[in-house]
Amino acid sequence: MFVEKRARRALAIVVGAAVAATAFAVPAGADAKPKKKGQVVKVMTRNVFLGADLGPGLAAGSIPEFIEANGGILREVTETDFPRRSRALAAEIRDKKPDLVGLQEVALWRTATPANLNFLNPDVGPTADTVRYDFLELLMDKVNRGDKKRYKVAVVQNEFDFEAPADENEVPDDGALDPPFEDAELNGRLTMRDVILVKRSKRVKFKRPRGGHFANLLEVTVAGALPVPVTRGWTRVEARVGKGPWFSFTNTHFEAFDDETETPSIRQLQATETGEPDGYAESNRPTVLVGDLNSDDNSVAENDQKAFNALKGFGWKSRSTEDPMSCCVNDLFTAPPSQFDHHIDHVLTRSPKQVKLLRSSVTGRKQVNGIYPSDHAGVFSKLRIKR
Asked: Would you state the CATH architecture of domain 39-385?
């Protein structure tokens, strides 16, 4: 009996020691969930659509055709109703709560009365200053509605800025100018802008806001006679979320109207300016590049892929959803959602080991109150950025 008790006592000591060892010592490799390193960062790219197709104006072969086309563009801008669309665009941003947003085609439409011929004099340039639609102001009013200020404008970069006579009211011979301008009753002016928004939060910081223009630009011939460069460019900030590392955030918009069959095409050259080792988006920090690249990495047409492949050749990697179709409907009121069949709005990084994709989605592929928010959809990505 004494021997049995001593044996049981010895067994209890051994078992107790084993339990204690299990409770306080974690064998190597047995940790259930290793602590993840890095900071979660949410980004978004959104082409808000300038409001009209500029194609008819660019294709006009004579001054009367040009004036007529310009009038149609102004009427279309009114019809596509950015004050109405801005509510849906703002709702997307408020819903996704990105830390940084890259915006393209943030148009500023202005007019001047009576019509003038300043567009023929490059030394004068555009002068119309009566604001008709300021897309940035309208959007920010909706984004920051109520007492809470959600986002601030970090960078605004003016791009294409052009003014010309227009026959908006379609009344013949009511202009103050001589033939062939007699139908033009006013001037319309479009200023294109690229913008970066940053969330208003103690956790989100940014510095070094800047922007610039591409050296390689498309030049179009207006009214069969006047050469006009289509200015495009980029915006950039250095940003930090929480206690994560500083990273570079660049927003851009490559050319849409160039001859994509040319090698290199204009947008391909702009991709090179942006993504090459000394390019506008390059940094010794982790990198994030967003924007409308007008280049589809999923397209079967080789020419559609040139700009994206140029970036890919410099080591840029996608950080977008597997269902990224974001372009483009041809009519905001009647087009089916199936027209979103191209992937030209991108989130990319040249730091694939430091910038990981956690989740991504597309916004704006459904109409809101009978109209699409834009002819593009938006792309949202949730990233983890490591040091």
From this structure: 4-Layer Sandwich (3.60)
